[in-house]
Amino acid sequence: MVGKIRIALLAPEFLTPWGGVGTYTVNLAEGLSKYKDIELHIITPMVPGAKKPKHLNIHTLSTANDQFFYNLKFQLAIGRKFKELHERYHFDLIHAANLVHMPDIFLRLRSLDIPSVVTIHTTIEGQIGGFITSNKNPLKMAPSELFSIIGYPYIGLMQYLYLKKTRFAITVSEKFKIMLEHDRRCTARITAIPNGLDTRLYGEKISRAQALKHFPQFRLVKSPVVLYAGRLITQKGIDLYVKSVAQMHKKGIDCFAVIAGRGNEGYVLDLLKEHNIPEEKYMLTGHIEQRMLPYLYRLADIFMLPSYYENFPYSLLEAMSMGCSCIATDVGAVDEIINNKNGLIAPKGDASKLAAHLRALLTDPALMQRLSEQGSKDIRKRFTKDVMVEQTYQYYKEVLNSW
């Protein structure tokens, strides 16, 4: 191919990203923007109050005022306006950043003579399964969980049609690649490219003193910090986290719970009260911007990811990179990140085992230190943004050469 490769990156989460898909998209865009033979165009919803980075080509086609219904508006906007953008920029390839969002669904149902790639972080069936396994009471579900279940017949059908039209796909773990290759709906050429961490942002050189400047409220915390960072939804296992911390207090083992993320704070406060965790032994920080997360991780001793469903979670990469001793449930491809030398794994939904791991770390500083050092070393060696971006770039070239 002569000249620059023009990529249309369809990014449902980009401006002020709030989850792993957003982190993935930002890392990919920042990396690809440095390639001299790529002209990258990011097509995304506008988020009120967000600022567009000036060094990137960003086109906003709709507005995101929520975390669910905005996606349909974005799909419709792409269906209406993409042709005009394509006539102006002559894209060589479309990359949809997430299967479940299906941002280009209305393009897939037409005949567009442009190769397209989709990144499959998860499937709607997997998400729904996680929601139902974690919580069968709709009154305790976050709106995004409840609306996903209600809308499943439509979303599931759209995903079926979407996968039938998909020729090229990236997924973020070997385990998910194998699962997709056995899925009769998916006949795409699939490559596994693990999520990669921006090790310049999540840097070893951030000191506790620097972190305290951003989170001065931690100056009053004298106990070991056990961090949960993620969306406050039942699928993420926040109930298991609270139960594990509660067990420590019952056994007289000192720790301080820090819960960071946006979502159903009322549900979390009810859990803390139900399990008799004293108010002076926990902190809810609310949503933390991506650029501030490294400082939060630096102030944590232990990070717990008690999810009922994941694929290849960014939060685990981030926490391990910053030196947290990590505990996670054995879901998705977590075991491609954690082994018994760099972290601890518990069976899905097993609060007792999570509590046992937490107790082991809190009562054995040497074990905590050993896992902290090995985890940070492993992540920085194996899962970097630069490797992820380069592998994606090479896959683009494969797709274009075979088109």
What does this structure look like?
The protein has 2 domains: 5-196 and 384-402, 3-Layer(aba) Sandwich (Rossmann fold); 208-382, 3-Layer(aba) Sandwich (Rossmann fold). It is 42% helix and 16% strand. It has 15 helices and 13 strands. It has helices at residues 20-32, 70-89, 105-108, 124-134, 143-150, 152-164, 174-181, 208-214, 238-250, 265-274, 293-298, 314-321, 351-362, 365-382, 385-402; strands spanning 5-10, 38-46, 57-63, 93-96, 116-120, 168-171, 189-192, 225-229, 256-260, 282-286, 302-305, 325-329, 344-346. The strands form 2 sheets. Strands 3-2-1-4-5-6-7 form a 7-stranded parallel beta sheet, sandwiched between helices.
- The number of distinct helices, counting runs of at least 4 residues, comes to 15
Succession of helices and strands: EHEEHEHEHHHEHEHEHEHEHEHEEHHH
| Distance, first to last CA | 12 Å
Tell me the CATH superfamily of the largest domain: Glycogen Phosphorylase B
pLDDT averaged over residues? 92
In short:
The chain is of the alpha/beta class and 403 residues long. It has helices at 20-32, 70-89, 105-108, 124-134, 143-150, 152-164, 174-181, 208-214, 238-250, 265-274, 293-298, 314-321, 351-362, 365-382, 385-402, and strands at 5-10, 38-46, 57-63, 93-96, 116-120, 168-171, 189-192, 225-229, 256-260, 282-286, 302-305, 325-329, 344-346.
